[in-house]
Amino acid sequence: MLVEFGDTRVLCTASVTEGVPRWRKGSGLGWVTAEYAMLPRATNTRGDRESVKGKVGGRTQEISRLIGRSLRACIDLKALGENSIVLDCDVLQADGGTRTAAITGAYVALHDAVTWLADRKSLAGKPAAVMHRSIQAVSVGLVSGEPRLDLMYAEDVAAEVDMNVVCTGDGDFVEVQGTGEANVFRRDQLDALLDLGVLGCTELAAAQQKALAS
């Protein structure tokens, strides 16, 4: 699944393995996790591969965990049965919002993986019960005092407030990450950003359904 948010492009794939990690065995529960990475030339200047450095960076670990947490909010691990799904999100080109694009694209990849398991009759529960909601994410922020949706890199670095909003298709929140980068912000500004984030996620939910139907 190739997802594009403006000039940001992320390739999202799902890999299914029968069985679960050792600490999960015998629980009857499945597992969903994610790994995030950026290609060396995804940004304006080349960065070294983390595999060459021999160490996964803190930012990479944080985003990987965020993607995994977000996607586990849409899946019934008991209905999944003792199957593992790993979501790989590789940033091909970065212009802001890579983590939100990764979450949105990874949902589609996860849905395809669950459908594949259902076709093989490898689920413990009914297919409709396994994924009981959709998940989307988008960035919002205040730039020169004005709310902006899906910030590109130039807007992101200039933003007084930067926020990532993860929502369900029903408009409920899964996770909100917000920071006053250059200034404090008021409650009414927070509400405006959350409203804008929900609006963006609603549009993304429609795009996801269109992609899954094609």
List keywords for this structure.
8 strands, globular, 214 residues, four-stranded mixed β-sheet, four-stranded antiparallel β-sheet, Ribosomal Protein S5, domain 2, alpha+beta
Radius of gyration: 18 Å
Q: What is the CATH top level name?
A: Alpha Beta
What CATH calls the topology is Ribosomal Protein S5, domain 2
The N- and C-terminal alpha carbons lie at a distance of 12 Å
| Run of helices and strands | EEEHHHEHHEEHEEH
Average residue pLDDT? 94
Discrete helix count: 7
Name the shape in a single word: globular
Number of discrete domains: 1
CATH homologous superfamily classification? GHMP Kinase, N-terminal domain
Poorly predicted ranges: none
Number of strands: 8
Q: What's the CATH architecture name?
A: 2-Layer Sandwich
Spatial strand arrangement across the major sheet: 1-2-4-3
Question: In this structure, how is the largest beta sheet organized?
Answer: 4 strands, mixed
How much of the residues is beta strand, in percent? 25-35%
What percentage of residues falls in helices of 4 or more residues? 25-40%
Question: Can you describe this structure?
Answer:
- The model has no long low-confidence stretch (mean pLDDT 94).
- The chain has a single domain (2-213), classed as Ribosomal Protein S5, domain 2, CATH 3.30.230.
- With 214 residues, the chain is α+β, with helices and mostly antiparallel strands.
- Helix 2 (58-72) crosses helix 4 and helix 4 (98-119) packs parallel to helix 7.
- Helices cover 38% and strands 29% of the residues.
- The protein starts with a strand and ends with a helix.
